[in-house]
């Protein structure tokens, strides 16, 4: 059910283009703002339909506004992504070949890690095996900052993770590149990097940290949804979005 | 059989000359020479490609414009032809027409040729800035304010000012060009390099000055994007004067009105 594209849609799209990714609350507020600015009727629960209208027009350009979950806080985000599956082409206009190689190496480390993180030391060490022009230490630090600024990576305490935007955009690429290696969340079925793993060697399912929080909320004895073994990991708290107040 | 004319490059920057009716060169050197194909050539060209191919190329052209626009770098027609259109350069006008339509209808962006001689294009926003503040903070905003101040001064002072006028003004506004600023960083670089590259300003050397001095003017993008009427309105409010009281600037603002007119759509603004 998609309507004609109007100025409210265009304004929404322009904001998405300027920001790359916004959280669900921001998207709802933006939807309202765009509709109000252009005197269009706005039904708050119609955000997804609104976005569908835009997406229909974006499809010929291989662009989409896609929704995804942050592994950090479990909240939903909307990101404007390129749909080209086969490479990190989206980034190639902004980064040099050797910078892209370093990014891919960082991704290798993150995918292969248990906790979905790569330390700056590990990233630095990975440059020993670079095939393109090697980067100096200071260049690497500068590059990592840029990648964080451009919202491809997130950084916390010297450790790097794939940003929410990166995951939403590159999920098809990641699935194709890392086929057997990549972890998938048993609950929400999207790729998982920061997750918990069932300790049962015959089971080994993975669940995103926020998905764990939601799934096991309030249960006194958490059990693996697949093999029913005791779930030994610490169950995190569900993180509420900022302005939502719940008792 | 069409005449094959060899066109030569006059300068290092490629300049395409319009020769309606003549054929195109197939040179593939670094400086691409491109002639606008005639309508009949375009027609013939369109017969040889599928609709899907045309749509594909249109999509690529749109993407190309959007990427360049993100950095506010103008698009050169020669680059567009060389990097995107390639073997489909003969249907260039049709593809550009469709791309412009898509940019307008989907993104609310208008394709504007700011340099008819060198065929440079930029995208300007068809949507008026919204009255209420957007709930989402756009990262580039602080520089827009800085730019608006500078453009206003230049406009009010007749269209050109010596650089010192701007530096002194900024100092008074606690934006010291000599120091690193919290929001703008190297202010001088933003003004003389970034804004110039984006075609918002022109920073031109004044001949026979020692030490070297420059003057600042509006750039081609500013001429298209920024409303002089709006500047006068803001000045009017600031100084509590009727904008018409600046008669010269008022005339100027309303004579160049067509180029800055933003065709909003159904909204009353």
Automatic annotation (TrEMBL), chain A:
Residues 185-227 form the Non-structural maintenance of chromosomes element 1 RING C4HC3-type domain. This is Non-structural maintenance of chromosomes element 1 homolog. It catalyses: S-ubiquitinyl-[E2 ubiquitin-conjugating enzyme]-L-cysteine + [acceptor protein]-L-lysine = [E2 ubiquitin-conjugating enzyme]-L-cysteine + N(6)-ubiquitinyl-[acceptor protein]-L-lysine. Coiled coil: none annotated. Its EC number is 2.3.2.27. Keywords: Chromosome, DNA damage, DNA recombination, DNA repair, Metal-binding, Nucleus, Telomere, Transferase, Ubl conjugation pathway, Zinc, Zinc-finger. GO terms for molecular function: ubiquitin protein ligase activity; zinc ion binding. GO terms for biological process: double-strand break repair via homologous recombination. The keyword Iron does not apply. PANTHER family: NON-SMC ELEMENT 1-RELATED, NON-STRUCTURAL MAINTENANCE OF CHROMOSOMES ELEMENT 1 HOMOLOG. RING-type zinc finger-containing E3 ubiquitin ligase that assembles with melanoma antigen protein (MAGE) to catalyze the direct transfer of ubiquitin from E2 ubiquitin-conjugating enzyme to a specific substrate. Involved in maintenance of genome integrity, DNA damage response and DNA repair. Component of the Smc5-Smc6 complex. It is found in: Chromosome, Telomere; Nucleus.
From TrEMBL, chain B:
Residues 1-47, 240-269 are annotated as: Disordered. InterPro entries: MAGE (IPR037445), MAGE_WH1 (IPR041898), MAGE_WH2 (IPR041899), MHD_dom (IPR002190). It comes from the Eukaryota. Residues 54-253 form the MAGE domain. Residues 33-43, 244-269 have a biased composition (Polar residues). SMART domains: MAGE. GO terms for cellular component: nucleus. Pfam families: MAGE. PANTHER family: MELANOMA-ASSOCIATED ANTIGEN MAGE ANTIGEN, NSE3 HOMOLOG, SMC5-SMC6 COMPLEX COMPONENT. This is Necdin-like 2. It comes from Acanthochromis polyacanthus (spiny chromis). The lineage of its organism: Eukaryota, Metazoa, Chordata, Craniata, Vertebrata.
